[in-house]
Amino acid sequence: MPFLPSFPDTANVRTIFDYNPAYFEPWVGMTQHLMRGDSALSVPQRELIAAWASKVGNCPYCHGGHAAASTILGYPEDIFDQLSEDIATAAVEDEMRPLLRYVQKIAAEPWKIMQADADAVFAAGWDERALHDAICIASVFAFMNRLTLAHGIQAFPETFMARGQKHVDEGYDDQYQALGG
What is the spatial distance between Cα 137 and Cα 144, in angstroms, rounded to a whole number? Predict the structure, then answer.
């Protein structure tokens, strides 16, 4: 049950955004650009990063929708179990492994990030822009994880695939148009 008494039991991110649209209109545009705009990372890779950051960040709500989007976009359904067990053997592109390790540190222990972590990303063939984009995605989802958890937003697994499909089909601007309306 959400922590704000005015929120319905089925509250979601849209409920939070509609509570104070002026806060979130720029946020939605920034998220759209980050997740669907020009990037060295593909859309499936960005959704994977968002879901992984949310899994590591212990946010079932955010993880569920973005994990579903990752599956719809081609990653195996059990990819996050695989990543949790061992990033080195998970069914992801080899070049994604150092990026996902970096994202894991952002979500769990950002104070432990070192130059060697960035160097591993570069050694895998990524450029500065790719690392910057991965950092931004993980940081956006650190915020979203805390936002939903702190509002008491519940994860309803039966909604994950539909939410994931909306992320794939509509992106972020279209889903959250006309905040407050």
Answer: 10
- Structure tokens, 36: 């669907």
Domain boundaries, the chain: 43-170
Q: Which residue type, as a one-letter code, is found at position 177?
A: Q
Distance CA 68, CA 165 (A): 7
Q: pTM for this one? A: 0.95
Residue 111: what pLDDT?
97
Tokens of 63: 């993880």
**Separation of alpha carbons 108 and 123, rounded Å:** 23
For CA atoms 62, 68, 73, 74, the dihedral sign is positive
Homologous superfamily of domain range 43-170: AhpD-like (1.20.1290.10)
The pLDDT tens digits for 105-134 are: 999 999 999 999 999 999 999 999 999 999
Could you give the CA distance from residue 37 to residue 50 in angstroms, rounded to a whole number?
A: 15
Closest residue by Cα to residue 50 from 64, 33, 40, 30? 64
Encode pLDDT of 144-161 as tens digits: 999 999 999 999 999 999
Q: How distant, in Å, are the alpha carbons of 9, 20, 48, 172 from that of 14?
A: 13, 10, 22, 11
Place 181 in a pLDDT band, splitting at 50, 70 and 90: low
Q: What does the DSSP 8-state code read for residue 180?
A: T
